[in-house]
């Protein structure tokens, strides 16, 4: 009996196309039905809208104050604490919460543009775009308005407020330096007065020891001159007016020498009195010289104190001048501090709103036609696959028993 073989190369694709064509009403009908139902269902999906506004960053620089970086403002604008305040504003306005806070913050975006990016510098635009995407036209606009207002109120003066705080600190430091200057000036005045007093006292004691008019002739009256010629010179010299101890001691010694030359008795009463007076004057001069040495030491110490106080005053005055220039720069920066009064566009010292959000017209989600088209294509493909599977199962030849 001949064996009949099946043609393994038999084309099975054409019959399946014919089968699909005969049953085309199923994938086409189901696709249309799914498209219509999806389109209708998308009407019940909340509409989401997007709106934007512009904020300008004041980048003026005063003294050594760094310019406000727009990237810093972007970070501040997306601060969770700030967005929590916006979240609460929405709840209070519409009487319902806008959803989970973690998802809520993702619907806010702040960005700026890079104007120049080189190896030397990176220039960022001072204009920041704030964008909100949310459900409902009025809700979206309200969120952006609240975001702008909260941003200006909380961070609109963050740099100028820092300048104000630093100015207060520097002003306190200047006050401390001025207090130290006044203390140094008081010390200088006391040292100067004490120095004048000690110098006057020293001059008086020096005058007692050796008057100024006797300074030139004093060497003639020193007891070191013992030879006869010098004694004769001493005898012939007129005796100056005894205005000081040294001159008086010289006069006493000269009188003693005159008496000795004239042949007077060394044990006479007059010589004894003169010798006693000489010893007393010598002792007094020694004590006075000791006091003068102490006064000279005190005067030198006072002069050093006065010099040190003067140097300290000069140093602190220079420090105060530098700090005063720094304070002037801080006060100039702090002068731009401004609180928004609630009228017009929100404005502050560092940030200023350039445009308010408008009521959005076009929704960004859902895109009903696109979603319905995708659903129809998916339904058509799935129905086609189902028909092919059904056809394949029906054409399988079961083995005979």
From TrEMBL:
GO molecular function terms attached to this record: protein tyrosine kinase activity
Superkingdom assignment: Bacteria
Coiled-coil region list: 160-194, 271-319
TM regions (residue ranges): 26-45, 370-389
Keyword set, alphabetical order: Coiled coil, Membrane, Transmembrane, Transmembrane helix
GO cellular component: plasma membrane
InterPro entries documented for this protein: Bact_polysacc_biosynth/exp
Listed PANTHER family: TYROSINE-PROTEIN KINASE (PTHR32309), TYROSINE-PROTEIN KINASE ETK-RELATED (PTHR32309:SF32)
The protein's name in its UniProt record: Polysaccharide chain length determinant N-terminal domain-containing protein
Source lineage: Bacteria, Candidatus Sumerlaeota, Candidatus Sumerlaeia, Candidatus Sumerlaeales, Candidatus Sumerlaeaceae
